[in-house]
Amino acid sequence: MAEARTSIAKSENVLIRAGDCHVTVLPHFGAKISSIRIASRELLQAPLAPVKTRTQTMAFDEGDASGWDECLPSVAACQVETAAGIANIPDHGDLWRVDWQKHGPESKSGDGSSITLFGKCFSLPLEVERTIHLHEIERGWRLDLSYRVRNCGKYSVPWSWAAHPLFVCDEGDRILLPESVHTLRVEGSGGKRLGQSGASVDWPVAKLANGSTANLSTVNRSDSGVGDKLFAGPLTSGENWCVLERQSAGIHVRVQFDTAATPYLGLWLCYGGWPEKPGPKQVCVAMEPSTAPVDSLAISGPWSRQLAPGESYSWPMQVEIERIERKTDA
């Protein structure tokens, strides 16, 4: 099924590889990282619908809602004021909707390969460059990503960014955060099981709105109907990581980021709880380094950012994939 849903994009694939790790990028579909594969095992959420051309106004759940997209200048649809008037920012931002361009061909080195792509927003005068370098490390593989956003307009504009990598998961997989993280902010929770947006919940064991408790660090069954968006932060330099431990798959996925540049971490825990409309559902954990602890650019706070005309900002992110001993039943 996943193969059929992605067939339209095959001619646009860019493949970079290092040993048994293969990363597929779709430049003309928002520079989506559509696949991270270790041998025959896929690590990213499969498409829920065919990968096809996106419009400037469609909702995210009208698309394939898969893989890894970049959310900029906002995650939530919103309106923001600028010197040029009101800017209408669509759901999950601009970048997943637009055609990105390659900056030179893919490059290869002894331990891997890399690709640089360039995308331009339409709701605000922002352009983004992203380089992905995939290489082998002692225990597995690492993706080093570097980003740069630039204001190419004539007036200052607000912006925010969040990575949106949807990692597949199985019941019993574990999400690990630094021991110093004890609470998370609720951005949204299906059925309000964790309470209203803005509520604070304990990590890892949270009290639910119905009075019971749930261990948020353990992945639920795929049909449990869970769909929770949470934020940690602001985080310090020693809290710059999050791990998805997949014992049954023999895979350990570690996301690392620079807390001086991106001090927040979004967690999207979805076990059959989204999309809310009929049809296929996501079963994934998204570990999302972010510039803000909210999805909407229209919500301001000490995290809010502006870029002056011609000004740019850069930041890194890493994903380490480690082979671990698979858990077997006694």
Concise structural overview:
The chain has 330 residues and is an all-beta fold. Helices cover 2% and strands 46% of the residues.
- How many domains? 1
Which structural class do the helices and strands define? mainly beta
How do the SSEs run, as a string of H and E?
A: HEEEEEEEEEEEEEEEEEEEEEEEEEE
Low-confidence stretches: none
Helix content: under 10%
Envelope shape: globular
The CATH architecture would be: Distorted Sandwich
Give me the CATH fold name: Beta-galactosidase, Chain A, domain 5
Radius of gyration: 19 Å
**How many angstroms separate the termini?**
33 Å
- Tally of helical segments: 1
Q: Which band does the percent of strand residues land in?
A: over 45%
CATH class call: Mainly Beta
Q: What's the pLDDT, averaged over the residues?
A: 94
Question: Which oligomeric state applies?
Answer: single chain
The count of β-strands is: 26
What does the main sheet amount to?
9 strands, antiparallel
Describe the protein.
β18 and β19 (213-215) form a beta hairpin. The protein has 330 residues and is mostly beta strands. It has one domain: Beta-galactosidase, Chain A, domain 5 (Distorted Sandwich), CATH 2.70.98.10. It has one helix at 2-6; strands at 14-18, 21-26, 32-38, 41-42, 68-71, 78-82, 85-89, 101-102, 107-109, 112-120, 126-137, 140-151, 157-159, 162-168, 174-176, 183-189, 200-202, 205-207, 213-215, 226-232, 241-246, 251-257, 264-271, 283-290, 305-307, 312-323. The strands form six sheets. Strands 8, 9, 10, 11, 12, 15, 21, 22 and 26 form a nine-stranded antiparallel sheet that branches. Strands 5-14-24-23-20-16-17 form a seven-stranded antiparallel sheet, with no helix packed on it. The mean pLDDT is 94. The chain is built from one helix and 26 strands.
